[in-house]
Specification:
Number of helices: 2
Radius of gyration: 28 Å
Strand content: 15-25%
Low-confidence stretches: 1-9, 12-27
Order of helices and strands: HEEHEEEEE
Number of strands: 7
Largest sheet: 4 strands, mixed
Helix content: 10-25%
Strand order of the largest sheet: 1-7-6-3
Shape: rod-shaped
Length: 189
């Protein structure tokens, strides 16, 4: 006759442990979304994670920790204030923003953990900071000098094909159109 013995483990314990792990994984929500413009200064306030999540702070019992995204962002572990580090955020140089032409798609992900009193619980929250484009790049042509032959008998308004200029900025900060303007005389705008 074989006797099996369970050491004080309730029958539902494995199921309860599984459900708790599933709840922790499910708690990593895309709940936080912020916007900053590229090339901003260090220590720029982005937002307050605590207030955006509806978490009361001040007692010091709930703390915040940045789990990812710390190259560009930092968080005050007591107040939940999210701000930029000293690292420059140049939208055109971020690998995840190359070849993206929709301003809403260029972002830096971060993850923050909210830790309860005496580490009694931990919730993870995913977030993204959208990096908005500024007009920080000049358009350039393949050559700094363009020679164009215009025949004198061509009518006014004749179109000529010019080489394409490129601009690392996009949208309203990129190239919409370009045109040749007559040289201004001295004293004229």
């Amino acid at each position: 006759h074989t006797h099996t013995h369970r050491e004080n483990m309730p029958l539902g314990f494995p199921l309860l442990l599984f459900l708790r792990c599933a709840a922790v994984l499910a708690s990593a929500k895309q709940a936080l979304r912020y916007r900053i413009t590229e090339e901003g200064p260090a220590d720029l306030r982005i937002g307050n994670v605590a207030s955006d999540l509806g978490i009361a702070t001040g007692s010091g019992e709930v703390t915040f920790s940045l789990e990812s995204g710390s190259d560009y962002f930092k968080i005050d572990n007591i107040t939940g204030e999210l701000s930029t580090t000293g690292r420059r955020t140049d939208r055109e140089k971020l690998p995840q923003c190359q070849m993206i032409f929709d301003e809403n798609e260029c972002f830096i992900d971060f993850e923050v953990s909210v830790i309860g009193p005496a580490q009694s619980w931990v919730d993870l929250y995913d977030g993204k900071v959208i990096i908005e484009d500024i007009n920080d790049n000049t358009p350039s042509f393949p050559s700094p000098v363009l020679t164009l032959t215009v025949e004198e008998n061509r009518p006014v308004g004749t179109l000529y094909l010019l080489p394409t200029a490129t601009d690392r900025d996009f949208g309203t900060n990129g190239i919409e159109r370009y045109q040749l303007l007559p040289e201004s005389r001295r004293g004229e705008p």
